[in-house]
From TrEMBL:
UniProt GO molecular function: NAD binding; UDP-glucose 6-dehydrogenase activity
UDP-glucose/GDP-mannose dehydrogenase C-terminal domain sequence ranges: 331-447
Species lineage: Eukaryota, Metazoa, Ecdysozoa, Arthropoda, Hexapoda
Taxonomic source organism: Allacma fusca
Function (record text): Involved in the biosynthesis of glycosaminoglycans; hyaluronan, chondroitin sulfate, and heparan sulfate.
Alphabetized UniProt keyword annotations: NAD, Oxidoreductase
SMART domains assigned: UDPG_MGDP_dh_C
Substrates-to-products reaction catalysed: UDP-alpha-D-glucose + 2 NAD(+) + H2O = UDP-alpha-D-glucuronate + 2 NADH + 3 H(+)
Protein name: UDP-glucose 6-dehydrogenase
Pathway(s) annotated for this protein in UniProt: Nucleotide-sugar biosynthesis; UDP-alpha-D-glucuronate biosynthesis; UDP-alpha-D-glucuronate from UDP-alpha-D-glucose: step 1/1
InterPro entries: UDP-Glc/GDP-Man (IPR017476), UDP-Glc/GDP-Man_DH_C (IPR014027), UDP-Glc/GDP-Man_DH_dimer (IPR014026), UDP-Glc/GDP-Man_DH_N (IPR001732), UDPglc_DH_euk (IPR028356)
The protein's enzyme class: oxidoreductase
Domain of life: Eukaryota
Pfam family, one: UDPG_MGDP_dh_N
Length: 475
């Protein structure tokens, strides 16, 4: 079957960029991206897109209104589509069975029911969302139980591997595309149909086809392995701080072994983002349900280490500031979970702020891309504080880093934005209270030069500060 019309349900961080690149590379295919959020769709149709991704504006500008459409009107888009991507959120369950660990598939199920009720003829339904293994079973069940005579569905798994901040590049030039399908003639044909779409810009040797369950599981495994590398190097960072080794040197020496590789060995305040923790928890839950206790506890440790790293860093701020930060002013540079995105989901900055707010600190926050409203929503959520009024009193949001740092006792770098590397730290130092502290949670500042300026410097996986008062030598 030739795919002429594609519908995508979910215009979020995955659905929006993925379908924009698809429309850009396949001008012969009409792509309609749907979302139930009116606000989000209005933003996709406006000059200011709802998400920040380098290179995305240009692509959307070129395709929008040509073969790329954003709408809340789901029904006609489903009816006319040959292929439907389900790209809705699959968050960790917050209640009921599997609370705090299992993936909540209610949005995926709602999409399946909608598709079943509207479809006629042959449709390919594609799981783009990250789901537990065998989620495709539930989708097929719902589709076949609700379908009318003459309708034929094929369900494929086609997980997305893009990372935020580099989504456009990742989509234009992916390491691989993974498509899982039913091991039958109709299943194989549907896989080939989706391969044809990707082959508009991706060579066939980069497209892997597997059975459905391998594809679903591979997505969780890829994220688990990436997160595991970060937790591994973060564990080593604690060892470096205790021994005087430098974690960057250790990472370089270790990563140059071609069997290990150098990527994802950047020690940090901890990993964030909407995927790693959620997908690890999901893997742990699946393993527990299958009574694979050791497997579950092995992967749980990756999350535990990440919690340890965040709390270790936050506790060090209090400790170095003479064990009290009540009424002190601390400047937080960076609130997004990584650079080049405005996304704050599971951002380590939220954890650090929560910790400092509980100790009664005043926070001055600056981030180049996160909307102030988003920061306040995050910090006043019940997960962070039981007293949102108090948070509003203690937190001030700034639109430039210099004003945010004026009069502060300490600066804490939580996101590795390039602009933080190039700041005029002398200018910042001059306006701060003394002794002035710099906590570099991303290891991006030239520590020697800020030490020269007069800062007391603390970072991850390396002893920097020279003051004997502030750092007793364990020897
Ligand atoms: P998101 O929250 O940004 O977007 C999901 C969108 O789906 C929302 O706008 C929501 O309004 C919409 N939606 C939910 N139910 C709907 C329904 N019934 N009808 C219409 N719209 C509906 O989520 P995201 O970050 O784009 O992630 C989507 C999926 O992709 C998740 O499963 C995630 O794990 C996976 N994923 C995310 C990333 C990432 O970097 N964010 C990368 C790879 C995979
Ligand atoms: C991740 C996966 O990389 C991507 O393939 C998947 O599709 C979605 O989840 P994302 O969460 O967008 O992507 O960003 P990523 O670059 O993986 O970073 C995740 C977190 O780990 C960030 O907080 C980042 O700062 C942190 N990180 C990353 C480190 O602390 N050290 C590293 O070496 C790499």
């Amino acid at each position: 079957m030739v795919i002429e019309k594609i519908c995508c349900i979910g215009a979020g961080y995955v659905g929006g960029p993925t379908c924009s690149v698809l429309a850009y590379k396949c001008p012969n295919i009409k792509v309609t991206v749907c979302d139930r959020s009116k606000e989000r769709i209005e933003q996709w149709n406006s000059p200011k897109l709802p998400i920040y991704e380098p290179g995305l504006d240009e692509i959307v500008k070129e395709c929008r209104g040509r073969n790329l459409f954003f709408t809340t009107d789901l029904d006609p888009a489903i009816i006319e589509a040959d292929l439907i991507f389900i790209s809705v959120n699959t968050p960790t369950k917050t209640f009921g069975i599997g609370k705090g660990r299992a993936a909540d598939l209610k949005f995926v199920e709602a999409c399946s029911r909608k598709i079943a009720s509207l479809s006629s003829g042959r449709k390919i339904v594609v799981e783009k969302s990250t789901v537990p293994v065998h989620a495709a079973d539930s989708i097929i069940n719902i589709l076949t139980a609700n379908t009318r005579p003459g309708v034929e569905f094929q369900v494929l798994s086609n997980p997305e591997f893009l990372a935020e901040g580099t989504a456009v590049q990742d989509l234009l030039n992916p390491d691989r595309v993974l498509i899982g399908g039913e091991q039958s003639d109709a299943g194989r044909q549907a896989v080939e149909d989706l391969c044809w779409v990707y082959q508009h810009w991706i060579s066939r040797d980069k497209i892997i086809t597997t059975n459905t369950w391998s594809s679903e599981l591979s997505k969780l495994v890829a994220n688990a392995f990436l997160a595991q590398r970060i937790s591994s190097i973060n564990a080593i960072s604690a060892l470096c701080e205790a021994t005087g080794a430098d974690v960057s040197e250790v990472a370089q020496a270790t990563g140059m072994d071609s069997r290990i590789g150098s990527k994802f060995l950047q020690a940090s305040v901890g990993f964030g983002g909407s995927c790693f923790q959620k997908d690890l928890l999901n893997l742990v839950y699946i393993s527990e349900c299958l009574k694979l206790t050791e497997v579950a506890s092995y992967w749980q440790k990756v999350i535990d280490m990440n919690e340890y790293q965040k709390s270790r860093f936050a506790a060090r701020i209090v400790e170095r500031l003479f064990n009290t930060i009540t009424d002190k002013t601390i400047t937080i540079l960076g609130f997004a979970f990584k650079k080049n995105t405005g996304d704050t989901r599971e951002s380590p900055a939220i954890y650090v702020c929560k910790y400092l707010l509980e100790e009664g600190a005043n926070l001055h926050i600056y981030d180049p891309k996160v909307e102030p409203k988003q920061m306040m929503t995050d910090l006043t959520s019940p997960m962070v504080s039981v007293d949102p009024e108090k948070v509003r009193e203690l937190v001030k949001i700034y639109d430039d880093p210099y004003s945010a740092a004026a009069g502060a006792h300490a600066i804490v770098i939580c996101t590795e934005w390039d602009e933080f590397v190039r700041l005029d730290y002398q200018k910042i130092y001059d306006t701060m209270l003394k002794p002035a502290f710099l906590f570099d949670g991303r290891k991006i500042v030239d520590h020697e030069s800020v030490l020269e300026i007069g800062f007391h410097v603390e970072t991850i996986g390396k002893r920097v500060t020279r003051s004997p008062l502030l750092r007793a030598d364990p020897a």
